[in-house]
Design goal:
InterPro entries: LysR-type_TF (IPR050389), LysR_HTH_N (IPR000847), LysR_subst-bd (IPR005119), WH-like_DNA-bd_sf (IPR036388), WH_DNA-bd_sf (IPR036390), YidZ_PBP2 (IPR037402). It comes from Uliginosibacterium sediminicola. Keywords: DNA-binding, Transcription, Transcription regulation. The chain is α/β, with parallel strands linked by helices and 312 residues long. It folds into 3 domains: 85 residues, Winged helix-like DNA-binding domain superfamily/Winged helix DNA-binding domain (Arc Repressor Mutant, subunit A), CATH 1.10.10.10; 100 residues, 3-Layer(aba) Sandwich (D-Maltodextrin-Binding Protein, domain 2), CATH 3.40.190.10; 104 residues, 3-Layer(aba) Sandwich (D-Maltodextrin-Binding Protein, domain 2). Strands 3, 4, 5, 6, 9, 10 and 11 form a 7-stranded mixed sheet that branches. β1 and β2 form a beta hairpin. The protein is rod-shaped, with a radius of gyration of 31 Å.
Length: 312
């Protein structure tokens, strides 16, 4: 129910309530003006407007002193409470203490990003905000923004080629691609180009969705097509597959960082124009000034920076 008559505020300057409070505290126009760092004529004008607004003297002269009217004394605590509430609205960020918060923060990370970022991120959050619970949701890339818009999560992280005006995106990293294979089962030439990639069977992950990937679109532009003989739901299984089968996988360099312990595999950068994409974190514009969202986003940024360096 809307009980506020917005048009009635057109005749009320909220600064008059500040002047009212100062006048009641000081009981003197000159001292009230000094309290608000304005001139005495401006304060006298404010008193005149208050008298007109309330139909009351507010302050009346009694000899050398000025006394508050009965109505002014009745209004004083209500005006003071209102000013304190208005003041508190502007101090939300100042009152935000991450060390004392008790809350849950919901974000989406795909499997590779979770494996990469979560250890460092949780360590940072436990140190700075021990009362914060981080809830990572397993949401497909195609659904993350919809979940963000619906308020089911507060932060989405990944590759988002299409954003709307309600999304507040921040670039975290730009990743290139690598080719991974078992050199005991396959021998690739020194220079790997698009034509070369079509000469070998591939294993491909669909963790970002079923639509054609960046490599497939590039191949199509050059009239080429690769042979995919196996699909996985997550790239984390790929090194175990290529250990035993003569297949190659083309994955973001960011993902292949998880495979460093597989020393028997070959991970080679692909120096092919157009083979890179941005990794971003996206919040909703409704949370642009939310201190908790801003705090977590900064912790994510610092985690990525510590792991991957500055954004290229």
């Amino acid at each position: 129910m809307d009980n506020v008559d917005h048009t009635s505020f057109r005749r009320l300057d909220l600064n008059l309530l500040v002047a009212f409070d100062a006048l009641l505290v000081e009981g003197n126009v000159t001292r009230a003006a000094a309290r608000l760092c304005i001139g005495q004529p401006a304060m006298s004008h404010a008193l005149a407007r208050l008298r007109e607004l309330f139909g009351d003297d507010i302050l009346y002269r009694d000899g050398a002193a000025m006394r508050p009217s009965t109505r002014a004394r009745a209004l004083a605590p209500r005006v003071r409470a209102l000013l304190e509430e208005i003041q508190s609205l502007a101090k939300i960020d100042e009152d935000f203490d991450v060390a004392k918060i008790s809350a849950q923060f919901r974000m989406a990370l795909n499997d590779p990003l979770e494996a990469l970022l979560l250890p460092g991120l949780v360590a940072r959050l436990r140190l700075a905000a021990p009362g914060l619970t981080l809830a990572v949701r397993p949401i497909s890339a195609s659904q993350q923004l919809a979940q963000l818009d619906a308020g089911e999560i507060q932060l989405a992280t990944g590759y988002f080629p299409q954003l709307s005006s309600v999304h507040d995106a921040s670039l975290l990293h730009r990743t290139s691609f690598c080719c991974i294979y078992n050199p005991a089962l396959l021998t690739l030439p020194e220079h790997i180009d698009l034509q070369c990639l079509t000469q070998y069977p591939h294993i491909h992950t669909t963790y970002t969705g079923d639509s054609p990937g960046l490599l497939d679109r590039l191949l199509q532009e050059h009239g080429l097509q690769r042979q995919i003989v196996a699909y996985t739901a997550t790239p984390l299984s790929i090194p175990f597959v290529v250990k035993q089968s003569p297949l190659i996988a083309v994955l973001p360099e960011l993902v292949t960082r998880l495979f460093s312990r597989h020393s028997d595999l070959c991970i080679r950068p692909l120096l092919i124009e157009g083979m890179s994409f941005p990794i971003s974190m996206v919040a909703h514009r409704r949370d642009h000034s939310d201190p908790l969202t801003r705090f977590v986003m900064e912790q994510v940024r610092q985690t990525v920076q510590a792991l991957l360096g500055e954004v290229a």
